[in-house]
Design brief:
This protein is mainly beta. It has one helix at about 20-30, and strands spanning about 35, 45-50, 55-60, 65-70, 75-80, 95-100. It contains one helix and six strands.
Length: about 100
């Protein structure tokens, strides 16, 4: 998924990978990913929190379940909904965006 998202170009002047959420959104915007509605998502698509503060991978068709990283080392995997509403840290008023790769069935 990350290769398809065109992340190879996200490097700083020293060749280090840069992977902030906004960098990721910029990369997929010029890749073969397209913006889709939540109903059009399939497993492997990306959910981006509406304010670009967090992202995750859609785990089921319709993207009701998202897997992402957590800032807590004890629990690196974070299961949530696409708005990451079980966090409290993100605005509930800004809807998430969804990106789908054209090769994904």
């Amino acid at each position: 998924m990350l290769y398809k998202a065109n992340l190879a170009q996200l490097k700083d002047g020293k060749g280090n990978l840069i992977l902030g959420v906004q960098d990721f959104v910029n990369a997929i915007a010029i890749s073969s990913y397209t913006l889709v509605s939540k109903d059009q998502t399939v497993p492997g698509d990306f959910a981006i929190q509406g304010e670009y503060q967090h992202m995750g991978v859609c785990m089921i068709k319709g993207c009701d379940t998202v897997l992402s990283n957590s800032s807590t080392p004890e629990k690196f995997k974070w299961w949530s909904d696409p708005a990451f509403s079980n966090s409290g840290a993100y605005s509930k008023s800004v809807a998430p965006y969804f990106y789908h790769h054209n090769d994904t069935v």
